[in-house]
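R.M. (postdoc): so does anyone remember the format we settled on? I'll just put the structure tokens first.
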């Protein structure tokens, strides 16, 4: 073979090898791009997150399956830690704002309304620069759910967590069809974080180990009804504990809280439960402060519309919360007591108030419960953002 032909043959062979290497990468990618639209077309449709969860728990839908679910994506999700609340949300059933609880038995509806709260929620911090967590609620939901004493009250609104990329956040708040991939949290994920396997089993049986991947290729959020954002109610809250030297007298504390309510435009009512924890409450329509004297634990919970007017609700709450913490310090001063963790909350979901810290007390550093550690570190990450 002449030298020129030999060189040409060598070059062709080299090119063929390189093309073959590229083909091994390119062809699967092409196939994947071709199959994703097919998977989306044949994705099983569900009319609500509850329908999808029922199918998952009965193994009718498998891990990594494309699904389409009609829902209302929201950047607000359920609270992460236990929130101490009085058994009564008010002294009458009309002290809670937002949608009322209806039932065919009037007595049941009255009891549920009186002893339940709008579920406390808040904004999740970004997972990274392009990924965040959202919650999928029923498309016709007007609140994020309830918590309370009446059996079944916490299951009235079924939701499902999801992960999305940041450019899809703008679609949240409106009824939509969400196309995503079913993912499952595994036992190993729990064990790697030191969370007991018993906790995983409880979550598995309740259907809380699944989430929807709305980040991967082929996923999307398609708003319905021209993408109009609709009303959504939930609880905004804060809780804390007082570490002190000496004792705070109750009267100046309660009087100060009542004045803070009035200054914010609320009409306060005093109430005390003489059973069990003997908690003391200052109540008003849509707002309540509760103090548990035995553990020096306090909570603030406000009914808020978060779908359309969150900015106003958050600003109002932050001002009230800041006033509450000032009241505690003032009451301690009048009682010749010293608060060792001034303006340090155990938990709050609001972002704008910069006049208080979160979980920076001595007790917070000594937390050993795995879930509480996750909550503490989660909140620190949020505040750094």
């Amino acid at each position: 073979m002449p030298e020129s032909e030999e060189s040409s043959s060598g070059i062709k062979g080299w090119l063929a090898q390189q093309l073959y290497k590229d083909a091994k990468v390119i062809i699967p990618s092409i196939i994947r791009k071709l199959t994703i639209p097919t998977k989306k077309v044949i994705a099983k449709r569900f009319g609500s997150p509850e329908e999808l969860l029922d199918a998952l728990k009965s193994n009718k839908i498998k891990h990594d399956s494309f699904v389409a679910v009609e829902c209302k994506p929201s950047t607000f999700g359920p609270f992460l830690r236990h929130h101490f609340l009085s058994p009564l949300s008010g002294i009458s059933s009309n002290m809670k704002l937002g949608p009322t609880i209806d039932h065919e038995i009037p007595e049941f509806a009255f009891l549920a309304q009186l002893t339940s709260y709008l579920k406390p929620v808040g904004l999740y911090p970004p997972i990274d620069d392009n990924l965040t967590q959202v919650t999928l609620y029923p498309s016709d939901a007007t609140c994020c759910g309830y918590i309370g004493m009446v059996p079944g009250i916490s299951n009235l609104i079924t939701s499902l967590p999801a992960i999305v990329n940041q450019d899809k956040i703008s679609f949240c708040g409106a009824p939509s069809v969400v196309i995503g991939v079913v993912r499952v949290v595994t036992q190993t994920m729990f064990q790697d974080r030191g969370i007991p396997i018993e906790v995983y089993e409880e979550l598995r049986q309740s259907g809380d180990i699944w989430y929807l991947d709305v980040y991967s290729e082929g996923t999307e959020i398609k708003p319905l009804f021209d993408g109009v954002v609709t009303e959504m109610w939930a609880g905004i809250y804060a809780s804390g504990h007082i570490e002190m030297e000496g004792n705070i007298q109750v009267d100046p504390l309660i009087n100060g809280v009542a004045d803070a309510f009035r200054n914010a435009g609320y009409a306060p009512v005093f109430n005390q439960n003489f059973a069990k924890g003997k908690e003391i409450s200052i109540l008003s329509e849509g707002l309540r402060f509760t103090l548990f004297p035995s553990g020096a634990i306090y909570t603030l919970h406000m009914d808020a519309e978060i779908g359309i007017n969150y900015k106003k609700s958050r600003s109002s709450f932050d001002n009230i919360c800041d006033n509450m913490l000032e009241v505690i310090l003032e009451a301690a001063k009048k009682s010749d007591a010293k608060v060792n963790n001034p303006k340090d909350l155990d938990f709050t979901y609001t972002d704008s108030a910069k006049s208080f810290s979160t979980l920076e007390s001595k007790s917070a550093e000594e937390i050993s419960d795995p879930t509480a550690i996750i909550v503490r570190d989660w909140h620190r990450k949020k505040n750094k953002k």
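R.M.: ...and that's the designed sequence above, right after the tokens. Also worth knowing: DSSP finds nine helices and 21 strands in the chain. The CA atoms of residues 272 and 280 lie 4 Å apart.
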